[in-house]
Amino acid sequence: MPTDRRVRRTKNLLRQALIALALEKGYRAVTIQEVTERADIGYRTFFRHYDSLDALLRDVAQSVLDELSGKLALFQPVSDPGILTERGTALFAYVHQHADIFRVLLLDDSILFVLRPVIEGTRQRLSEGLTVMQTGSYPAGLVATHLVTATFGLMRWYLENDFPETPERMGEIFSSLIVQPTWQAVAVSAPAPQADTPEL
């Protein structure tokens, strides 16, 4: 599909240009004209794909989260802590590899209004997935909010401190500080099955 390839290439060039300019001068100071010039794409072409810079930035954020979701089942409960550590390691290796994008998305407070709906979508999807589990005295929405907020907070700390630990060590921290305690708390608070209730 030549047309699809051209569209993907155009969008990728616009994303890269936006991130580079936002790092240089801050997102609020960037204009569409500057983005199209940096991407070497016609000004009118921009509006075939996006109606604003905010729409382009939302696309950047959503693309990153979609790619992460496709690669990692970060919050899926497992009994083996080693698996959680591996997932966390992969997460922070990805953050390190795409540091420029994450520095813009997580460290530029002027774009929280763009990032917040994307994070909320992630939290909502996790909450919906948790409703099929027994979360005991903890509402599924609360568990989802904690996991997502704590994880993004840890990612931000990693960036703010200029990668003070290896991805492997961050994977251990992610597992032992965030995910394992959460699933342990949920398991402890979950109601025990009734003696006369058949197992599912």
What does this structure look like?
74% of the residues lie in helices and 0% in strands. It is an all-alpha fold and 200 residues long. The protein has two domains: 2-51, Homeodomain-like (Arc Repressor Mutant, subunit A); 57-189, Orthogonal Bundle (Tetracycline Repressor, domain 2), CATH 1.10.357. The longest helix is centred in the first third of the chain and has 24 residues, at 2-25. The protein is elongated, with a radius of gyration of 20 Å.
Tally of separate domains: 2
Number of helices: 9
Structural class: mainly alpha
- State the order of secondary-structure elements, H for helix, E for strand: HHHHHHHHH
Percent range of helical residues: over 70%
What summary fits the major beta sheet?
none
Poorly predicted ranges (pLDDT <50, ≥5 residues)? 192-200
Instruction: State the name of the first-level CATH class of the largest domain.
Output: Mainly Alpha
Question: How do you describe this structure in short?
Answer:
With 200 residues, the chain is mostly helical.
Task: Draw up the topology in text.
Elements: H1 2-25, H2 32-39, H3 43-49, H4 53-71, H5 81-97, H6 99-107, H7 112-130, H8 140-160, H9 167-189
Features:
2 domains; 200 residues; 9 helices; mainly alpha
